[in-house]
Amino acid sequence: MELTAELVTQGAYALGIGILVGLERSVFDQPVPDESTESEAIEEKESSELEGGEPSGVRTFSTFSLVGFAAAAVNVHVPFAGPVILAGLVLLVLALYRHTLVRSPGMTTEAAAIGTAVLGAMCHSNPHFAAVLAVVLTGILSSKQFMHETIRKMRRVEVTDTLKFLVIILIIVPLLPNRPLDPWGAVNPYKIGWLVVLISGISFVGYFLTRIMGAQKGLGLTGLLGGLTSSTAVTAAMAEESTAAPQLKAICAFATVVANATSFLRVLVMVVILDLTLAKQLAWSIGGMALTAVVAAILLWMAASRDKVTEIKEREGQVKLKNPFALTPALKFAAFFVLIIFVSKVAREKLGNAGIYLAAAFSGLADVDAITLSMAEQTGNGSLESSVAVLGITIAVVSNAVVKSGIAMFTGSRDFGRLVALSLGAAVIVGLLMACI
Question: Of residues 157 and 168, which shows the higher confidence score?
Fold first, then answer.
């Protein structure tokens, strides 16, 4: 009985996959009518539906999926039956493709039919994974118009730089030694390589989001997502962007400030996971910084929305976007980042733990995650007072915000640096006041 119920469930998955892909092929894989014939096409479609017609793709793809499922089920009792049945389906599809080659040279539907049969067969062993792949396949099939428009807009330099980016990620970085090469542990080629990839990746994503969505929405989304990984990298990327396109200063500043607001909230989330009591106390200082940054980001977004210069420049094509994969700024920032780590580690070794606040300030110059996790763990086991940890983490976050303000001022355009410094400066003041109360 359990086997029968399991087979029924697996068969239902296979049928659902066939219906899903079949619906996509029936609804979305239709030629877009010209304006002159649009009304005629609508009338013809409505007439077909009234006469009881249905999209043949649903039946065809459901059959392919169920046949694939049956082939996998039969193969358990009759060896090699499954591969033979699937091979027969493939030959049938290829024969049909050859018959319609002159009329329709594309073979997306034929490939989707073969894939649906394979997914149907997979339902016999792993129906959940097959369902996930079916959703991915349907998404790819339905993105035809978007993909065609995007590819038409792509320039050769964008394709070339994308290949360079993939070579860096997949070949060069994995070959770098993952160990410190200096006595202080500041220079780790593998970690530095990933830092370069992270900064370049944020610029890379920001470039294409800007191309697709426009400067305001694209760069704004880049800041929001980048803040979840590295607000410092976002700051460096947006500073370089503001230098290349000074008219985008407001939206670049928004992306930077919203990334920092996200990073403040990320610190709170980490502390909540480790020590809820400490998180409640830390919410006043770090929460105040996050709230101040959010308010500043809203004001910057409004300023960018009112900035008609950006819209006019975009329409006239005067916003000159740099190449999508800019390696030189990332290398410069990585060298600056390593220098900060090196200085902070040497200072800690020379001065010792004379003051937890001094150690937090030095740690915040490069990263806040390490000092945050360390203090939260110590308060959790009772080896550190929560009030000391609250002020120490706040100092680290403030120190990190000061560094990012410096990056914005010294590597970005003057107006961009001023906007970011004012926004983060206000957040720093609020955080220190709330921590001392």
Answer: 168
Q: What backbone phi and psi angles, to 5 degrees, belong to 143?
A: -95, 20
Q: What does pLDDT average to over the chain?
A: 75
- CA dist 28 and 112 (Å) reads 13
**96 within 8 A of 104, measured Cβ to Cβ:** no
Model confidence over 283-334: pLDDT tens digits? 888 999 999 999 998 888 888 776 544 443 443 343 344 555 566 666 766 6
Higher-confidence position of 434 and 232 = 434
**Contacts with 139 (C-beta within 8 Å, 6 or more apart), sequence order:** none
User: Where exactly are the structural domains of the chain?
Assistant: 2-33+54-149, 157-436
Encoded tokens for 267: 């610190």
Alpha carbon distance 368, 231 (integer Å) = 11
Distance CA 190, CA 207 (A): 25
DSSP state of 354: S
d(CA 437, CA 433): 6
CA distance 355 to 408: 29
The Cα–Cα gap between 384 and 370 comes to 16
Residue 81, C-beta contacts closer than 8 angstroms, at least 6 positions apart: 71, 74, 75
Instruction: Quote the CA–CA distance of 300 and 219 in Å, as a whole number.
Output: 13
Predicted TM-score of the model (pTM): 0.51
All residues at 6 or more sequence positions from 270 whose CB lies less than 8 Å from its CB, including other chains: 369, 372, 373, 376
Calculated CA dihedral for residues 227, 228, 232, 235, nearest 10 degrees: -20
Nearest to 115 by CA among 231, 17, 242, 189: 17
